[in-house]
Amino acid sequence: MDKPRKESQLVDKPRKESQLVDKPQKKVIFLDRDGTIIENVLYLNDPLKVKFLPHTFEGMRQLAEAGFEFAIVTNQSGIVRGLVTDENLTAIHKKIENELVEQGLKILKFYHAPFKGEHPMRKPNPGMIFQAAKDFPIDLKESWIFGDRRVDTEAGRKAGLKGSIQFTTTEYLEMDAHLPESEVTAADMLEAANFVLSF
Questions:
Q1: Which among 68, 82, 130, 133 is least surrounded, fewest beta carbons within 10 Å?
Q2: Has 188 been annotated as catalytic?
Q3: Among 2, 12, 22, 32, the one annotated catalytic
Q4: What are the structural domains of the chain?
Q5: Residue 173's pLDDT is what?
């Protein structure tokens, strides 16, 4: 004869309030790396050569105070070309992270695409952005991307972001002529932050 089940087995336990409420979605600034937050060094493979661009910290602080968080999305074909090692890439990102922490700033995660040519994870494709949205509760329609090339702004457009800004920090402003021209440009992080916060 089957034993009668206890009451606790018959009634669903109420879920905790934290289980009933969706996590608030994050507003994120997706940041290219070279020429956007640090000086552009072709196939950077030495953490000692990391140098932040002027006004990066100030601009990021203003955005953070307004509720934005940050993620890095960087193409790194130098890895597959044998010009950048995985070990040095990790060290470079750790140095960037540590210097930002010293300034009271935090990166959600560093995403990199170690590919060359066409690849869904490589900008101008939005794969890294979509991966971030899987890893974190991100509201893409309230998020932006900053970068120094049209591949960055095009990735943002394909991902359905609220907006994108191309920095005029490098010689890449006119590159990627086959891609749509960036609608907004900025001289640096501070100028970009002021635009986003006034939008």
A1: 82
A2: no
A3: 32
A4: 23-198 (3.40.50.1000)
A5: 67
